[in-house]
Each structure stands twice: as structure tokens, then as C-alpha cells.
Design a protein that fits this description.
Layout: E1 2-6, H1 10-20, E2 26-32, H2 35-45, E3 49-52, H3 54-58, E4 65-68, H4 75-84, E5 88-91, H5 99-112, E6 116-118, H6 126-136, E7 143-153, H7 171-174, H8 176-187, E8 193-201, E9 204-213, E10 219-225, E11 227-238, E12 241-245, E13 258-263, E14 268-272, H9 277-286, H10 292-314, E15 318-319
Parallel strand pairs: 1-2, 1-4, 2-3, 4-5, 5-6, 7-10
Antiparallel strand pairs: 7-11, 8-9, 8-15, 9-10, 11-12, 12-13, 13-14
Helix pairs in contact: 4-5, 5-10, 8-10
Bound molecules: NADPH dihydro-nicotinamide-adenine-dinucleotide phosphate (NDP) and 1,5-anhydro-D-fructose.
């Protein structure tokens, strides 16, 4: 499948190599708002076509799929336009800025009969499946509580989209995407009720703390922010044991990819599981397996984030309204 890329920012510089090293994928075009940046990027990464403006990418016959790596507030517009141009879509997380926009992306892809996937790579790592199977198979007894923390410490460059409300910035959407995702995956269902409290800066959440209430007395507490050093861990605590992973969003680069099981006898077992999550994610999009489950989960995650954002604004717990979808191609 021939990919065209929208945006030349931080994540593109990393994911372009993952695309180029995945079997069955070629990166044939790069688009930027600036022709100069597109040309520079194309020459650095050996990409044949450099185009100015995102529409020009959609007009390219050499592109079958778009990797959309723009600030969240632009995802809906360009994902819908890509679908309408008949291109498959790999859209960066968060899928959009709210569930309504996320559903609009899904609807456009359905209508155009193209495939779409949010670029939430950890979901595709073999370790994630192992940990989820272990918890869902009763390996920790009855699940009681999930804790998760995802953060990094600024500095930001001026104009950084993460600090701009109009571009869909803020740690709650950006990093809450991961924390909500792991809590819901571990719980195996979406929460019924949520609460969030945020420390704001420039009208976006710089830090957010959240509580999620699920069925059967399962709860989760989440901490995300741009004001503490890098954290990407979770713990799923059950009646007999806990699963702990300190890098679930993306394995630390210089260490063995692991997770741990702590049992009530005080024993600790380490499990190793190496994988290349970005390649697995890309393979999932370009393959022929149904994407319905991933699509549904992305939209539901967005709905939980909607409720958390509303909760922080209204300073009260909010009931979650979980949308359900028609089937994906
Ligand atoms: N999956 C992952 O691990 C990660 C995912 N992300 C996600 O990827 C997306 C992009 O993040 P990131 O690459 O860090 O962002 P950057 O700000 O580094 O890059 C975004 C790119 O979008 C383009 N763009 C278009 N309009 C604007 C605008 N008004 N302001 C700023 N940039 C604009 C620019 O490219 P140009 O000017 O060339 O057109 C810019 O380089 C976000 O949704 C983020 O959450 C980010 C990091 C890691
Ligand atoms: O998704 C992401 C992964 O983590 C990064 C920080 O390390 C975030 O900034 C980013 O948006």
C-alpha cells in the first residue's frame, strides 16, 4: 500500500521509518503547509513526491492511504477529506477532539468503503495482548482497580499545539487517550461514570487526575500531565495478584520489554515480550482483518474523554454515554 503523509512534525519523523520498514508499504508522498519543509523532508527520507498543502496529497494518484499526523483539531477535516478522496486513513491519536467528530470520521470512511485506524500503537503490541489475556483469564483473580500515569515534562517550543485549545491541545486529550485506553481495556468495558480535575494553563489541561467507575465495583484512577517527568505505567490490581507495566504506551528504548506479576505471597514474576508495535499497527490497517473492534474502541475512548472534559468543566461526576457503531470495512 502506498502511503502519503500529512504533516512534518515530531511523530512523523519517527513513524516514517516504521512505515518504510513495514512489508507491503511504500511512502510515496509527503505534504506540508510549506513546500520548503515538504522538500526537505522528502530529501531526508527518500520520498519521491513532496507536495505543498494537504489537499494536493489527496489529489496524488500515487497515494492509496494517508498517515495523518496533524494537531487533533485538524483530524476530522483531513480524515474525512481523505476518505472522500478514496484513501485509507491512519489517523494519529487522539482520533479527534470529541466523539461527534470521531463518529464523522467513521461515517465518512464507511461511506467511501475505506479502512481507518487510530495510530494507538500499544494496542497492537504482543505484550498488550498477553497482559490483557492474563487479566481477563482470571490471572489476578477479580479485577478491582486500575491505576495509570502518563506524562512528560515540558519544555514546549512556542506555538506548540499541545498548549493551544484551538488545536485540540491539553494533556487530558493527548495523554488521557492512553490512560483511558488501558483502564477500559483492562476493565473489558467502558466506564459508567467519570470524574476529572485539571490544572489548567493557557486554557488547556496541563495536568489531569481522573476517577472512572465501571460495572462490578471496578474502578480506575488516572494521572496525566505535562509537568512531571516521563511516566507511562499502569497497574491492574486484582484479588490475588497485580499486573504492573512501566512502559505500556511504548517500551523504553534501552531495556527489555517486560511486565510483572506480583502475587499476594509477595512473589514477583517478570515476563518478557519483544515486538514492534508500530509495524503491527500498520500491518493491521493494510491487512484484511475487520477493524470494527478497534474503530469502536477508539470512538468509545473519545466518548469517555468527552465525559472527563465535561466533568472537569462542571466540577462534578458525569455519566458516560457510549456510542455504538455500524460495522467497519
Ligand atoms: N502515536 C504517538 O506515539 C504520538 C502521537 N502524536 C500525535 O500526533 C499528532 C501530531 O503530533 P506531533 O507530531 O507531536 O505535533 P507537531 O506539532 O510536532 O507536528 C504537527 C504537524 O502538523 C502540521 N500542522 C498543520 N497545521 C498546524 C498548526 N496550525 N499548528 C501546528 N502544526 C500544524 C505541521 O506540519 P507542516 O507545517 O509541515 O504541514 C506540524 O509539523 C497529534 O495528534 C499527537 O497527539 C504525537 C507524538 C507521539
Ligand atoms: O502520543 C504521544 C506519545 O507520548 C508523547 C510524549 O512522550 C506525547 O507527546 C504524544 O502526544
Amino acid at each position: 500500500m502506498r502511503f502519503g503523509i500529512m504533516g512534518t512534525g515530531r511523530i512523523t519523523r519517527r513513524l516514517v521509518a516504521d512505515l518504510q520498514s513495514t512489508d507491503g508499504v511504500a511512502v510515496t508522498a509527503i505534504a506540508s503547509r510549506s513546500a520548503e519543509r515538504a522538500n526537505w523532508f522528502a530529501s531526508q527520507y527518500g520520498i519521491e513526491n513532496a507536495v505543498e498543502g494537504y489537499q494536493a496529497l489527496l489529489d496524488c494518484d500515487e497515494v492509496d492511504a494517508v498517515y495523518l499526523a496533524l494537531p487533533p483539531a485538524l483530524h476530522r477535516q483531513w480524515a474525512v477529506a481523505a476518505a472522500e478522496a478514496g484513501k485509507h486513513v491512519l489517523c494519529e491519536k487522539p482520533l479527534a477532539v470529541d466523539a461527534q467528530q470521531a463518529i464523522a470520521i467513521h461515517a465518512a470512511c464507511q461511506k467511501a468503503q475505506v479502512r481507518w485506524l487510530d495510530a494507538t500503537a500499544w494496542l497492537h503490541h504482543a505484550r498488550s495482548k498477553q497482559m490483557l489475556d492474563f487479566v481477563h483469564g482470571g490471572g489476578i483473580g477479580k479485577l478491582g482497580h486500575v491505576s495509570a500515569a502518563v506524562s512528560f515534562y515540558r519544555p514546549f517550543q512556542s506555538g506548540e499545539h499541545r498548549l493551544r485549545a484551538d488545536l485540540g491541545g491539553g494533556a487530558l486529550l493527548d495523554l488521557g487517550w492512553y490512560a483511558v485506553g488501558i483502564a477500559c481495556r483492562m476493565a473489558g468495558v467502558m466506564p459508567q461514570r467519570v470524574f476529572a480535575d485539571c490544572v489548567m494553563e493557557q486554557q488547556v489541561p496541563l495536568r489531569a487526575n481522573a476517577m472512572l467507575w465501571f460495572d462490578q465495583d471496578v474502578t480506575a484512577s488516572l494521572s496525566v500531565g505535562y509537568d512531571t517527568a516521563t511516566r507511562k505505567w499502569f497497574e491492574a490490581a486484582g484479588s490475588e495478584a497485580s499486573v504492573i507495566c512501566d512502559d505500556f504506551t511504548r517500551p523504553w528504548a534501552d531495556r527489555t520489554t517486560r511486565y510483572w506479576v506480583h502475587n499476594s505471597a509477595g512473589e514477583v514474576q517478570a515476563h518478557e515480550c519483544a515486538d514492534r508495535q508500530e509495524q503491527r499497527m500498520i500491518e493491521t490497517l493494510i491487512g484484511d482483518q475487520s477493524l470494527a473492534e478497534f474503530n469502536q474502541f477508539a470512538i468509545q475512548t473519545q466518548a469517555v474523554l468527552d465525559a472527563l472534559i465535561q466533568s472537569a468543566r462542571e466540577r462534578q461526576a458525569i455519566d458516560v454515554v457510549v456510542p455504538s457503531l455500524t460495522a467497519s470495512p
